[in-house]
Specification:
It is a single chain. The protein has about 500 residues and is α+β, with helices and mostly antiparallel strands. The protein has 21 helices and eleven strands. It starts with a helix and ends with a helix.
């Protein structure tokens, strides 16, 4: 009955915001188009653009659907740019839950009364979102901490909404013209993963700890310390951070913060995370960033992180290097070789499409280039050529857009390309240059030292094994041939015997 009640609520929202109009262009079957046209739709928001109506509908459906919209906003490879841009405006600010519930959640999760855990605990939350809320506290050792607590009884509601989303995704894939291209079931599965990752605060604690380790001596970024003795799946306790919200430009100027340097720091932090560590904060929007009095960034909220394999890095290196050299043919062939573009893709056509997007960049002052627009156009190209967009690279794209937006807010003349290029050239030289070859040889030296002395014996063993296999196969073939011959001889003998007896 609860499932039916939730479905009824969703139906009312679809009616109120006239989302029927969003479905019609994607229906290919005449009978289904006729049914969709007959669905009722309110005229209340008819004068609003469809992307705005979708955003308002998701906000009214509640925090889980808001989270889904946020995930969809990072997939411009699947959505038109106007939809992706509008969904990026979604905010998941919700009223805090009762302080007594928060207290009970902490005590049940950590197994002690709250008076034994914290010397001081403020029951009034300092921040509240769809998944959790944050309280300020003090440990008995004197450290000021932030205590993040999951909303209680959240799992049941989430699983209910996810079940409805999976059902809807299956319908969209079967009934609508763009159903398969949009990969709705894949999107819901991706959202399911992100959501359950955020529901495990121990995972967030581990992410924060790893990021802090990577930047422990950094003069650009501060990552709060994690207190693992006060963490669980439902509770996260980290160092309290005092700083100025990065969106408060006027206050930063009053404090004498060098905004130009801060913008450059953001670019360098991003590329350091991606290319040096292969592990990056994937939710670097203004709400998750403070600025310390000494001008360093302070990172918060580590629920969503991205990681890159050596293969991903190599792919990016090839494409960046080709881009530097304006070698669009290599960009095209790299996509086909990697399997991200279908094998039957015409490299020349893909090359021409990439050139159309990227070449205008080189005809303008670099400070006027918006990488956000470039990436959007590249994603449009990917839709045309059915290029598979890897989830980790979508997170990378989302983070790059956040960093670019922050940088341009701090320093409108920020040249993202010029700032990043020296770092990328240096990194690529270390990865695919002569020095990289020498480093890899040194790293593999212990293994070679062990393998080389035994190599003749191993080769001989392989040769002997091959010979044994060949002899075994030959013997088996001989036996099979002999059996066939015996069969026919026996058959001939039987025929002759029968013919003699019949005489």
């Amino acid at each position: 009955m609860k499932w039916f009640s939730r479905f009824a609520t969703i139906s009312k929202i679809v009616y109120r915001y006239g989302l029927r109009d969003m479905l019609l262009p994607h229906v290919h079957a005449d009978w289904l188009r006729h049914i969709v046209r007959r669905l009722p739709a309110s005229a209340q928001f008819a004068n609003q653009p469809l992307p705005v109506r979708l955003r308002l509908a998701l906000e009214n459906l509640g925090p889980i659907f808001v989270k889904l919209g946020q995930v969809l906003s990072t997939r411009p490879d699947l959505l038109p740019p106007d939809y992706a841009a509008e969904l990026a405006k979604l905010q998941d600010k919700v009223p805090p839950f009762d302080a007594e519930l928060s207290r009970r959640q902490i005590e049940q999760s950590l197994g002690k009364p709250i008076e034994e855990l914290y010397a001081c605990f403020d029951p009034q939350p300092v921040a509240s979102a769809s998944i959790a809320q944050v309280h300020r506290a003090t440990l008995f050792s004197g450290e000021e901490v932030a205590v993040k607590v999951l909303r209680p009884n959240l799992t049941k509601v989430i699983e209910q909404d996810l079940a409805l989303m999976r059902f809807a995704a299956g319908c969209i894939e079967r009934l609508f013209a763009d159903g398969k291209r949009l990969k709705p079931r894949e999107v819901v599965a991706e959202f399911d993963k992100y959501l359950h990752d955020e529901l495990d605060l121990m995972r967030e604690a581990a992410n924060a700890s790893q990021l802090r380790h990577n930047f422990i001596d950094s003069d650009m970024l501060i990552v709060p310390q994690v207190y693992f003795d006060y963490c669980s799946r439902e509770v996260l306790t980290i160092e309290w951070m005092d700083g100025t919200p990065i969106s408060d430009i006027n206050r930063l100027k009053e404090q004498g913060i060098d905004l130009q340097k801060l913008a450059q720091y953001g670019v360098e932090i991003f590329f350091t995370q991606v290319f040096k560590h292969g592990f990056f904060h994937a939710d670097m929007h203004p709400g998750n960033i403070l600025v310390a009095p000494d001008g360093r960034y302070i990172a918060l909220d580590f629920g969503i992180v991205g990681s890159l394999t050596e293969y991903d890095k190599r792919y990016l290196a090839i494409n960046f290097l080709a881009f530097f050299n304006r070698d669009y043919h290599r960009v095209a062939t790299a996509h086909i070789e990697s399997g991200w573009a279908p094998a039957d893709t015409c490299a020349e056509d893909l090359e021409a499409a990439v050139r159309t997007v990227c070449e205008p960049i080189f005809n303008k002052p670099l400070a006027e280039i918006s990488f956000g627009i470039v990436l959007m156009r590249l994603f449009e190209t990917s839709r045309r050529f059915h290029v598979e967009i890897q989830p980790q690279l979508v997170l990378l794209q989302k983070t790059l857009l956040n960093i670019e937006g922050l940088g341009r807010q701090l320093d409108p003349q920020l040249d993202l390309w010029q700032t990043a290029r020296p770092f990328l050239v240096k990194w690529m030289d270390s990865q695919i240059g002569v020095r990289a070859l020498w480093r890899n040889l040194k790293n593999e030296a212990p293994d070679w030292a062990e393998i080389l002395p035994s190599l003749p014996r191993k080769i001989s063993s392989l040769v002997d094994e091959k010979r044994r296999h060949e002899m075994r196969d030959a013997y088996a073939h001989l036996i099979a041939t002999q059996r066939r011959q015996n069969f026919w001889l026996a058959a001939i003998a039987l025929i002759l015997l029968v013919s003699v007896l019949l005489k």
